[in-house]
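In this section we turn from sequence analysis to structure. A common task in structural bioinformatics is to predict how a protein folds when a small molecule is present, because the ligand can shape the pocket around it. The inputs are simple: the amino acid sequence and a SMILES string for the ligand, here flavin-adenine dinucleotide. Study the lines below before reading on.
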Amino acid sequence: MAVAAAEDVPAAAGPWLPILYGSQTGTAQEVAEYLAAKAKRRGYRPWLGAIDAFPLQAFPQAERIVFVVATTGDGEAPDNMKTAWKFLLRKALPQGSLNKLQYAMFGLGDTSYAKYCAAARKLAARLAQLGGTQLVPAGYGDEQCEEGGVWSELDAWSTALWSKLEQLTEGTVAAVADDAPVLEPPVYTVQQQQQASDAKALELFYGHLAPPDAYRSDAEVVSKSSRQLRMPHAARVLVNRRLTHPEHKQDVRHIELDVSGMGKGGAYVAGDVAWVHPENDAAAVTALAQLLQLDQDSTVQIALNQHSSANLTTDAAAAAAADSEQQPVVAEASALDSLLAATALPAQQDLPQYCTVRELLTRYLDITGTPRRAFFEKLSLFAAVPAEREKLLELASPAGAELLHVYCTHERRTYVEVLTDFQSCKLSLERLVELVPRLRPRAFSIASASVQHPGAVHLCVAVVSYKTHYRRDKIGVCSGWLAQLQPDDTVNIWIRKGTSALPADSSTPVIMVGPGTGLAPMRSIIQQRCVQRQQQQQQQQQQPCDTLFFGCRYAAKDYLYSEELQQLVQEQQLALHTAFSRDAPAANGGKVYVQQRIREAGAQLYELIVAQRAHIYVSGSAKQMPEDVRAAFASVLAVHGSMTVAAAEQLLKGLDRAKRYTVEAWS
Ligand SMILES: Cc1cc2nc3c(=O)[nH]c(=O)nc-3n(C[C@H](O)[C@H](O)[C@H](O)COP(=O)(O)OP(=O)(O)OC[C@H]3O[C@@H](n4cnc5c(N)ncnc54)[C@H](O)[C@@H]3O)c2cc1C
Ligand SMILES: Cc1cc2nc3c(=O)[nH]c(=O)nc-3n(C[C@H](O)[C@H](O)[C@H](O)COP(=O)(O)O)c2cc1C
């Protein structure tokens, strides 16, 4: 197949087509970028960016918007759409506010989660409530689908979308039959340089990467620009020890970090989350450097090319838009084009200006991440050997979806491994930085309370380690990196608010359900409330007002912080219910999980929830656990409150609204 060059692409002067994404870990963003490239080939001017980057005042005037929305947490919206979502939820918005809007919704999710594609579904429902109509029926892509993951649904959905848009634009936009990938001019120029990397250059990278609303990392914040405020704190490792038995398969680490140099002496509150920016494994860095014949010690200058600015927006633009507190004033219809033109912010450099090749591959590029479909399409443009080009195009095609799943997705093949398999694709550094996404920070619930451990953050980290379908060993990028750190090593972190807010009065009971590393935020809550009770000199109650349900496999192997928890029980600070799923089989022969313990403690829990207005916190694996635990609470309320399960579920919904039932879950 011939490779089209950039000149063959219709100039982007046609109608604007906003393609907006809500993406937590980059998949929805990549799908949106893929759609934008296709839209451009049809003659649209894609307005591409995070949903929060789109000017709020353009929503009521926009006639067409394409949304690509992932779901995160326990059915939650990704960070980079939360501001717009809050705005669209406002009760004050009149019913017909979006009467002009025809929208297309593509949701990304995973059917193994209880709330499949919840964010996309909720957004679509709200747009419809405000008067918006669908261009085409919503599409939902499932990570679990073996024939292409979230991309499986995309082809049929996008074919219907282009065809509908073509009808509506009545020939002003080309119906392009040939969607073959196009070689665009490089986004970056990368040159050898003598200058060493410096802290200022890092701001370019971290300015884009920092989680929104992270605590300020430095006490001298007032005179600093917002980019600098987004720099992580370099926390020193104080302790790194294994919590699980040496013979147990799962390595769980207790890590203590010194954050005393952060703003406010590193103070944070129970339930807050640390975001850790990891480093790639040195062996993978060396393998890639050798493959691409790069000198790891050489310094390079990285500069964004001017031409790449058009119609590209970024998450940083989203943050800037959110910061600017835009007012939702209604734009004149005739002004919409100029508003979109003015707000299609130039692409911003999201890599340091100077760094060594080693730093680039170790800290900034996600070279050990798993490439998605669009990468194979782009990579095909660089294959020198026709057979490799054909194979890459096959992997990127709808017909090759199953092959891609077997070869790459399911096997968790990395960028380094794919480039090793397709050796004729000798990517230059400038193309490498364009094709490989940025290495993202990972979240860890803080496992300590700063009132008890001033200036320190404790993490409880399960090291991700597994064998792939073809028995290849895999280690999680961040957890694997954290596990091997030594005292005095540094970890770049931000601290952010979590979802759990504690009751102001520490005598209000809390019920915590934290199996596995779900115990981390519970340890923080318990520590904070113990100190609070001491400070408030509360009298010892007959019953401890903190109740914890903890579960793991074996009491002797992976019972995290067991001594500490038992000590708290002895001191009457904690009522503890444990479930060891692989120890002695339960009477009925099944495994015992926390939800069974919840049912067993039903009478006491009913009293705590209904009479004493307890707050409930659930944390840990996002897959089945939150749903099973919720069902157990519903059953407790139904049995002990003599109500129907439906009435019990309504009661739980009331607790959700009152923020008395919160879930912090991850996969
Ligand atoms: C709010 C929040 C709080 C969190 N708190 C904690 C915490 O306190 N402690 C903690 O340990 N983690 C916590 N996490 C999870 C943490 O952020 C990381 O996701 C986790 O450490 C893995 O990151 P990693 O870089 O090591 O793995 P990655 O390199 O990102 O690999 C993880 C990926 O590997 C794949 N994978 C994992 N296991 C398997 C398997 N068996 N088979 C096939 N594929 C597999 C999956 O695709 C998975 O997404 C939290 C997450 C969130 C969102
Ligand atoms: C921590 C976490 C929580 C998730 N929660 C849900 C969920 O509640 N419902 C769902 O359908 N998918 C859920 N997913 C799956 C993602 O929506 C899916 O993997 C998607 O492709 C991610 O897109 P993104 O990379 O753009 O964020 C979750 C994924 C993760 C990692």
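The pocket of flavin-adenine dinucleotide (ligand 1) is lined by residues 273, 412, 442-445, 460-462, 464, 466, 476-480, 517, 520, 664, 666-667 (CB under 6 Å). As an exercise, try to locate the residues that line the flavin-adenine dinucleotide site and compare them with your own expectations.
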